[in-house]
Amino acid sequence: MSTTAPPAPKRDDAPAQLRSWHHPQLPRRSGLAALVIAVVLTSALHAGIGLALVPAILAGWAVVVIGLPVLSYAVEGRRKAFDRLITVIVSSAFALAMIPLVSILWTVLKNGLPVLTPEFFSYSMRNVVGEGGGIYHAIWGTVLITAATAVMSVPLGLLTAIYLVEYGGDGRLAKTIRFLVDVMTGIPSIVAGLFAYALFVVFFGPGVRMGIAGAVALTVLMTPVVVRSSEEMLQLVPNELREAAYALGVPRWRTIVKVVLPTAMAGLVTGITLAVARVIGETAPLLITVGITDSTNFNLFDGRMATLPVFTYSSIMSPGVPPEPSIARAWGAALVLMLIVMVLNLVARLVTYFFSPKDKR
Amino acid sequence: MTDTSTPSPPRGAAEQGPAKRRLADRVFLGLSKGAALAIVAILAGVAIFLTAEGIPGITASPDEVKSGETFLAFVLPLVFGTLWSATLALVIALPLAVAVALFVTYYVPRRLGHTLGYVIDLLAAVPSVVFGLWGMRVLAGKLVGPYEWLEAHLGFLPFFAGPASATGRTILTAGIVLAVMIMPIITAIAREVFRQTPVLLEEAALALGATRWEMIRTVVLPHGRSGMIGGAMLGLGRALGETMAVAMVLSASGVVTFNLISSTNPSTIPANIALQFNEASGLTVNALIASGLVLFVITFAVNFAARAIVNRRKEFSGANA
């Protein structure tokens, strides 16, 4: 900017213009001040007069959403006032969106924590009526079915991603597959479950329930997620690395296995972990393909298995005669499920953080 | 990277090398191409198996299935409920999601915005059965009071005609839970689109004296319109197919009504499958699978359109940049 001299001459009349440009403004931190006023007012109404929490918050909010723009309109004019109104609304929308998250975390922790005893993790529900029992069988079912899902969908998804990035390029087949994978991400989970059921009915007859059918259903849901994330990661591998390998006379497949995949490893592991986190909480497909049982079943190919999500569902929907213990177990299982999902998400982030190629070099 | 030197064959073995190499390469290409085609096969398989198992349910006579109705009479109210609840969810979630995306992109410092984005993504990671649990045990109870208020004060509108449900487990509650579930997806896509807004245009608007909102209205929103439409349709697809939250929250009786707060509510296809499947037998199972096929077709169409819109936008912005 400093290099070009021309646009500087009319210095003399600047003050006059500046005066007209500088509209009066509210102090810089007035938005923050409004927030503080709202909080003070809300707590005063709630604690002082004893108004219920929700009306008190609404009152505090109304003061800000009306007061700040009106004040601004008086001082700064219409456009600034509208800008402030939108700012308040957008911020409120964010706060509103946080309420469910906080409420879910809070209720699951509050209701689930008291249930988590050593017995809860080491007992199944076999011969349990009323209190006692646990989720031993459901944990094993979830672990086995998720493992079987990963065994099927990780190679399938990874190889597809390799094809899309390394071989397909922008060809018609690659484009079509990319689009179909996108569409496949949107298959409702219950439809995936119905597909697995319809597939297994052909071989095993009506009423079939087995763990592997659930794994097939989850594979339909997990594979597209693996493809998308792996594709993204493989595309990040610099082309120079591939070219260097080719220049050394390394065959293409060896380049992929020895150069491309190791370079992208951290990202691939992250993507796969997130995909596992996503399917581990799926309920609907397992409900109709695997069902629920009270005993521990280690055999994926024989009969019903319990899984954490379905256990949660059936404990709350058909709690039995004294319902309280069953409902408590549902909250406990939900908490365990949430913890597993959160830990998987955390692991995925940590993998990216510690093993990203940036740190390697 | 040191191992790249070991496999490269000496020049003397050139006669053997290339042939072997080509074979290994061909096998690897075959494997990966096979995997890619397997994905297409799976997608086709979903359609084929659902159709094969569903057709007996469609043609079944009324007295052979549990509902005691023809397939059309059985599925149409469910289609209505599915579309209605998903529409409710979208109407609630879309403005909220766009506002949240604007907030984390333009109204907070960049670094804080990233963190808040993660927090929103956290909401997407909550399993649907937990949403269902929360919806039926916490949210529904909290909404009984507001529903009674709506019935008393806005009862003249058909939506709030009442009588207000005593449990709060109504289609509106289900719609709110669905909205919470699809909000993160729409937000994520909206954030992505907003991030792609050319910074030059934003700065030009601000330099012309636009306020932040005027900049957003004249630059960001027009630029991101088709992306937001695509995101909304992806969210709609999610809401259409969501099973557990609706099955657990809604106390359904399979009626067709626009009443949002009464205790008789329309059911949805996925929720109905989840609730009926384990007690069903014979042709009733086929009828349920056929209703799943209907759901598959609806969501497929919605997702297809959404992806087409999102992808078209991608190319458009690429040409523009």
From TrEMBL, chain A:
Pfam families: BPD_transp_1
Any one of the GO CC terms: plasma membrane
Gene3D superfamilies according to UniProt: MetI-like
Membrane topology field: Multi-pass membrane protein
Transmembrane segments: 32-52, 58-75, 87-109, 135-165, 177-204, 210-227, 259-280, 330-355
Molecular function GO labels: phosphate transmembrane transporter activity
Gene Ontology annotations of biological process type: phosphate ion transmembrane transport
Its biological purpose: Part of the binding-protein-dependent transport system for phosphate; probably responsible for the translocation of the substrate across the membrane.
Protein family membership: Belongs to the binding-protein-dependent transport system permease family. CysTW subfamily.
The protein's name in its UniProt record: Phosphate transport system permease protein PstA
Automatic annotation (TrEMBL), chain B:
Major localization listed first in the record, in broad terms: membrane
Pfam families: BPD_transp_1 (PF00528)
UniProt xrefs under InterPro entries: MetI-like, MetI-like_sf, Phosphate_PstC, Phosphate_Transport_Permease
Family, as annotated: Belongs to the binding-protein-dependent transport system permease family. CysTW subfamily.
SUPFAM superfamilies per record: MetI-like (SSF161098)
Protein name: Phosphate transport system permease protein
NCBIfam families per record: phosphate_pstC
Cited CDD domains: TM_PBP2
Bilayer-crossing regions: 27-51, 71-104, 116-136, 171-190, 243-263, 283-306
UniProt function note: Part of the binding-protein-dependent transport system for phosphate; probably responsible for the translocation of the substrate across the membrane.
Keywords recorded for this protein, A-Z: Cell membrane, Membrane, Phosphate transport, Transmembrane, Transmembrane helix, Transport
Subcellular locations according to the entry: Cell membrane
